[in-house]
Amino acid sequence: MKTLKDVSCGETVKVTKLTGEGPVKRRIMDMGITKGVDIFVRKVAPLGDPIEVMVRGYELSLRKADAEMISVE
């Protein structure tokens, strides 16, 4: 199973599932990241934290721990 953390710069992927629970999952969903949405990975910091993405026309910065909870294809 591939997560957002494994995606390279410049790739566009589709969200298949959100893992995690409670406030963390709620925070990810509040960012507009839901099942079926496309995410474009703009930039990944040298150590992998943060990951900058484009979702629904917005630029977002995600922590590596949050990116691990987003399954993609």
Automatic annotation (TrEMBL):
Please give the InterPro entries that the UniProt record associates with this protein. Answer: Fe-transptr_FeoA-like (IPR007167), FeoA (IPR052713), FeoA_core_dom (IPR038157), Transcriptional_repressor_C (IPR008988)
What residues form the membrane-spanning segments? none
UniProt signal peptide: none
Molecular function terms, GO-annotated: transition metal ion binding
**This protein's UniProt keywords:** Iron
Instruction: Domain (Ferrous iron transporter FeoA-like): give its ranges.
Output: 2-73
Could you tell me which Pfam families the record lists for this protein? FeoA (PF04023)
- Output the superkingdom of the source species: Bacteria
The record's PANTHER family line, in alphabetical order, gives:
FE(2+) TRANSPORT PROTEIN A
Q: From the Swiss-Prot or TrEMBL record, give the protein name.
A: Ferrous iron transport protein A
